[in-house]
Amino acid sequence: MLARKKFKKLLTGTLGKKNFGYCPICKSSTIYIEFDTWLRDHYQCVKCKSIPRQRSLVNALNLFYPDWPNLVVHESSPSFRMFTFFKKECKSYTASQFFEDITIGEYKGEFICEDLTNLTFENDSIDIIITQDVFEHVLFPFKAFREIARVLKPGGVHIFTMPWYGNLIKSKARVKQVNNEMIYLEPPVYHGNPVDKKGSLVTYDWGLDFTDLIFEQSKLFTTIYLEKNRKFGLDAKFLEVFISRKLKV
User: What residues form DSSP beta bridges with 200?
Assistant: First the structure.
């Protein structure tokens, strides 16, 4: 009964503004609902419950790499929704999470245990690596960027989302580790984590210099792609998709 009442409210618009459109994840016509003014987490497709940054990433994949379902794709720390989508669409898709109780490289259910700063994959072995809102939580991000560059095939890409602050001239660390002790440089902030109820600590605020930092550390060239289009449910803050490309030899 409650679900039926909620659905009725969705259709009448009493739970928030709505618009009709096409979802790149559902691959069908849908209705988008604003459940809250913070659209990044609350502007949802009523069919698949996807949110803008997820649709933005898939939209960019379709635009820049339309053959991605036939490529070797790995995603680090996916949400259940995106894991289900990519597993269905891509025959060579794998996914990983970091589990403190599992040896790196071993499986826990359908996920490989991986550390982005020490990946177990072979050199030049993956076409596309996906991370969605991960790199604001990595303690040693530059080591992770170098590892991603190592395992990407020549011409391969790291395609990702993360909060990006255009008013921040220089990226800044929010925390550092000294002798295995966490030193907080800014008040601690945590985001949700699909495999850890404690959440994920925000370690970096990324600013205007981050594309230069990625190149300096990994020699990956980064393109920033932004599309806002309510027809595809693309409207929110931090909607940019970043595409870091490994040059062909």
Answer: 191
